[in-house]
Design brief:
The complex is a heterodimer of chains A (159) and B (430).
Chain A lengths: L3 H10 L2 E5 L8 H11 L3 E5 L1 H5 L3 E2 L2 E2 L13 E4 L6 H10 L4 E4 L6 H9 L3 E3 L4 H9 L22
Parallel strand pairs in A: 1-2, 1-5, 5-6, 6-7
Antiparallel strand pairs in A: 3-4
Helix pairs in contact in A: 1-6, 2-6, 4-5
Chain B lengths: L7 H7 L26 H8 L14 H13 L4 E5 L2 H12 L5 E5 L4 H10 L6 E5 L4 H7 L4 E7 L11 H10 L4 E4 L4 H4 L9 E5 L13 E5 L11 H4 L10 H5 L3 H14 L5 H11 L2 H20 L4 E5 L9 H7 L2 E2 L2 E2 L4 E6 L2 H11 L4 E2 L9 E3 L11 H6 L6 E5 L5 H12 L2
Parallel strand pairs in B: 2-3, 2-4, 4-5, 5-6, 12-13
Antiparallel strand pairs in B: 1-7, 6-7, 8-11, 9-10, 11-14, 13-14
Helix pairs in contact in B: 1-3, 3-12, 4-11, 6-7, 13-17, 15-17
Classes of the chains: A alpha/beta (159), B alpha/beta (430).
């Protein structure tokens, strides 16, 4: 189970997020999430072989076909792919030295989870990076969602 | 450190509100504003496209109202909540988010009169039909299901019939037909009963009643569990691109709070039954003491029920917290224990010997018990439903709703129990 403490630390420390399976269509959930994170100060690195060949950019950032093609360090790998396709992506995430492997809502690959933990990485499953950011740093509370935040301290913004 | 699972008493005080980020204000500020500024044209576009969370206009969302929404969602153990101007508005929003022309509803017959009117008359004008069944018989719900049934609606504790819904059994009926169970949980309040924990999918509340508790303010809240599979093929509005939102698919985009987002953006925004921030603030003042009040309502009502049961001028008593109630075991199973017995709220009904006239005499002779059409106040309230709240209904509909001609409904308050019993006794002797 991912705790509030762990998710806060992951979202605090991460700066560069490679989004595997990012769609260029504006109404797709992956685009929603990546645009949100970009607007909140993260660098988004699109990873999608479909777009890497045709159009080279999504959200103003160069799109790569594979994680291993990214020529700079990535903090988090955020996966919008079917559960059965996740293991090879996890293996690449370990290879490039990412610090967190994040599987989106309904993506739950337990082998990938075990693999990235063994490599000393943070592992998050079945959660949306945008929703968790909005839950912990503000936004989700504005639309009536039960955030689970009970505290006598002001909501902390990301440091 | 594992996340703490806080108790309802703590959630009633804290959920949905941390100290204000701008000012540090400990109590909840009232954001009395219609509108909110955009940071840039791009920010505005993101908000309108639902790509970011934020406030635009208080008909859609407001930070003070949101605190109430989250708090009731937390108390119900749900994923998300949405407030509106009254309990009826919340019920309408829950139904209108799910239903379209040609759909069918299976509903308990023993419902609040306003709910019967909404289903039997108002929604019928829009081509939505309802079959009413005996709230105490899950098999009757099953028998009434049709291929075009899209929702099952019932009250956890019927007002004023005081019938008890077997939530788990009726949820199973609804789910075996791929439709959600909506439960009006107004009478128990989320402190005494959590229908979502027993399998319901959506809960609606009149926050005007126990949640507020003070009888000053109208409001309503709906809560979704986050567990219903809206992509089972029966709810295209949840899965198909939204014409009103440039093709957003609500279930795909918002997942386990997709129903609430769609209710907010496609029903509340369009039909406009928004809750005022000031009203939300007033209701929240009440919610902070919900648990303390509900315990006293339960213990007082238990004593009143016993007193009435022993009184020579009383023909019958109906209180789900009495061992004599035919569904006492179910009450025991579904409702929180208060002082070693099931907490059955403050609502009870009884018949005064002498029928309709004697009932009216009792009501008019009361000194501190208020004759009015509300429940869930700190004050003890009494009414004669057949001549007031249910008078628009035919006699058969009245009987279906559990309203007998000699019946007095009492919402036992939290005054001193000896004073309540004194007033009942002197009014019965009048």
């Amino acid at each position: 189970m991912n705790t509030i403490e762990q998710l806060r630390r992951v979202l605090d420390k991460s700066q560069t997020i490679a989004v595997v399976g990012l769609s260029a269509e504006w109404h797709r959930p992956s685009f929603f999430a990546a645009k949100y994170m970009q607007e909140h100060g993260y660098r988004i690195v699109p990873v999608n072989p479909r777009y890497a060949k045709t159009s080279s950019e999504i959200l103003g950032e160069h799109c790569y076909a594979e994680l291993t093609e990214i020529p700079f360090a990535v903090d988090m790998v955020d996966v919008f792919r079917r559960t059965e396709d996740v293991l090879s992506i996890a293996s690449q995430a370990v290879q490039i030295g990412a610090k967190c492997f994040w599987q989106q809502i309904s993506v739950i690959n337990l082998e990938a989870d075990t693999m990235v933990r063994a490599a000393g990485m943070d592992s998050v499953m079945d959660r949306c990076v945008k929703i968790e950011h909005a839950r912990l740093f503000g936004g989700l509370n504005l639309v009536g969602v039960n955030t689970g935040i009970v505290s006598a301290k002001r909501l902390r913004t990301r440091s | 450190m594992a996340d703490r699972q806080f108790q309802p008493e703590t959630l009633a005080i804290h959920s949905g509100q941390v100290p204000d980020s701008a000012t540090g204000a400990r109590a909840l500020p009232i954001y009395q504003t219609t509108s909110f500024v955009f940071d840039s044209a791009d920010h505005a576009a993101s908000l309108f496209n639902l790509q970011t969370f934020g406030n635009v206009y208080s008909r859609l969302s407001n930070p003070t109202v949101a605190a109430l929404e989250e708090r009731v969602a937390a108390l119900e153990g749900g994923r998300a909540g949405l407030a509106s101007a009254s309990g009826m508005a919340s019920e309408a929003m829950a139904l209108m988010t799910i239903l379209q022309q040609g759909d069918h509803v299976v509903a308990a017959g023993a419902l609040y009169g306003g709910s019967v009117t909404m289903l039997a008359i108002s929604l019928k004008r829009f081509g939505i039909t309802t079959t009413f069944v005996d709230a105490t018989k899950p098999e009757d719900f099953a028998a009434a299901m049709r291929p075009n049934t899209r929702a099952v609606f019932a009250e956890s504790l019927g007002n004023p019939s005081l019938t008890v819904l077997d939530i788990a059994a009726v949820a199973e009926v609804a789910h075996s037909h791929g439709v959600p169970l909506i439960v009006d949980n107004t009478v128990p309040s989320p402190f005494l009963c959590n229908p979502l924990a027993h399998g319901a999918d959506i809960v609606v509340h009149s926050a005007t009643k126990y949640l507020g508790g003070h009888g000053t303010t109208l409001g309503g809240v709906l809560v979704e569990s986050g567990r219903f599979p809206w992509d089972n093929g029966k709810f295209p509005g949840m899965t198909e691109p939204s014409a009103g939102y440039h093709g957003v698919k609500f279930f795909e985009t918002f997942g386990d709070f997709g129903f609430t987002m769609r209710a907010r953006m496609e029903v509340l925004r369009v039909y406009g039954s928004a809750l005022s921030p000031f009203s939300a603030w007033q209701i929240l003042q009440g919610v902070e003491s919900l648990h303390v009040r509900m315990e006293r309502h339960c213990t007082n009502a238990r004593k009143v029920a016993q007193f009435l049961n022993d009184h020579p001028r009383v023909a019958w008593v109906n209180y789900p917290g009495m061992p004599e109630h035919p569904q006492y075991d179910l009450v025991h199973k579904q409702m929180r224990s208060v002082d070693g017995a099931p907490g059955a709220s403050g609502l009870l009904a009884f018949g005064v010997k002498g029928g309709m006239d004697a009932g009216v005499r009792f009501i008019e002779a009361a000194q501190i018990m208020s004759h009015l059409a509300n429940i869930g106040d700190t004050r003890t309230l009494i009414i004669h439903p057949a001549s007031t709240t249910h008078r628009q209904l035919e006699e058969k509909q009245q009987l279906d709703a559990g309203v007998l001609p000699d019946m007095v409904r009492m919402s036992v308050g939290i005054e001193h129990i000896d004073d309540i019993l004194w007033d009942i006794d002197q009014a019965l002797s009048a």
